[in-house]
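Quick one: structure for this chain?
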Amino acid sequence: MDNCAEFEKASSTSAIAMRWRIIGFTLCRLLLAVFVVTADGANPAPPQPLREFRGAWIATVANIDWPSRPGLSSSEQKAELLAIVEKAAQLKLNALLFQVRPACDALYASKIEPWSEYLTGKMGQAPDPCYDPLALLIEQAHQRGLEVHAWFNPFRARYSSPLSVAVSNHISRTHPKVVRNYGKLLWLDPSELFVQQRSQAVILDVVRRYDIDGVHMDDYFYPYPKKDAAGKRLDFPDQSNWQKYLANGGKLSRGDWRRKHVDDFVQNLYRSIRAEKSWVKVGISPFGIWRPGEPKQITGLDAYDELYADARKWLAQGWLDYVAPQLYWAIDPPAQSYPVLLKWWTDQNLHKRHVWPGNNSFNAGGKWRAQEIVNQVRLTRRQLGATGNIHWNMTSLLRNRGGLADTLARDIYAQPSLVPASSWLDKQPPSPPQLAVERDQSSKPVKVSWRAANSETIWLWIFQTRTDGKWTTEILPGKEMARSLAMRARNSGLDWIAVTAVDRCSNAGQATLLNVSNGQIAIR
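Got it. Here's what it folds into:
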């Protein structure tokens, strides 16, 4: 039974719940009457909360972030995952990007692909006792108001340093004809239609079965270039399919042919997710340089012609809800300047989607001082069209590398923040909540309760109080619908309380305000 249904049931049977519905009805212990008026100049407008995406990647490949090593007990794995969630909440992050498919395997209960070897050390072996890491993360993160974006690698089949042999239901065993050896990697060939359909099916399976907030992919489409023992560059081994394409009259260049496979995959996936769950955001974190010379001073790897990833096109076509270019360089060097590249990416954003750059926070305490990351976040805030950052990686924050986590908590993340709204997914904000207050005549606490005005699903609540003229803002998970304020309303300086509902696309409605001294409620 959902919260709204529980409230309706209780309201018909409980004298306490009747206080929500009967205006001015006097009960022996009710001190404050509640009634609604139209907002006017006498009712203060609570400040708008900060809007900024604050994410961190949780990498599972090679046990980079979690679990810390393969073979930990289920209880140890759970404890580490909960520590990550707690740290994220403590730092006032609002999203975690969790790698659930590093190499055609699963960090969740899947009937399509085997359990990842990074859990137990053996591919296909479930945690013992069995549990579902993705389900656990979603549950714990949502309890703290954190989004969870499931992070997939669509075409990598085996990492370069496998821990175990591939099991019988791994794609390299079930469909070896679509898998290519490239250097020390196994890679799915994007030119195979089956590959595109398989990866899409895996992702949609998670979208359907899990209450995720986003689908995320990183920069690995075609593999980064490798060289053989003699130092000669290896070409991706798709010659057979390329020759078939030419024999059938194909006219594209080989590079354009490869890019088209990735373009088709990205476009079809976006449309499929939109049709399945309209509120689930789709994001990609491409290599931070689209092409050398874009803009003119930039040099480095050509993602367009090396990874066959045309992220500028995906953004221009509206096939993404957010792009998170990996801007893993410092601010000052001109050849890969963080602010120059950031501005370039925002200039490509024709559909006004989200631009949330990735920052190399792992460099803090090593190659860089923590202040470099702080300055990058500040530059992001000043860049029109950029509305957040994603930290690579969660370990850098857990270990407080270079004091970065402490600096973030003390300085730029001192106040909570809402994820920027995705109005193209849903424009309609939730209705103002219904609000009630009661205070026992013989005790100090003021209890404030609220609920959705109708059957809307509320993702978050903005809870604000004004004391001595100063507003304080908290962002609470949707299931938290009451607060007890341990203070005397008439002499504490607390005069106004405001509650605002926020939906899954981060649209915020009008606030419901309560004048603590006289019980007056207004909508603003």
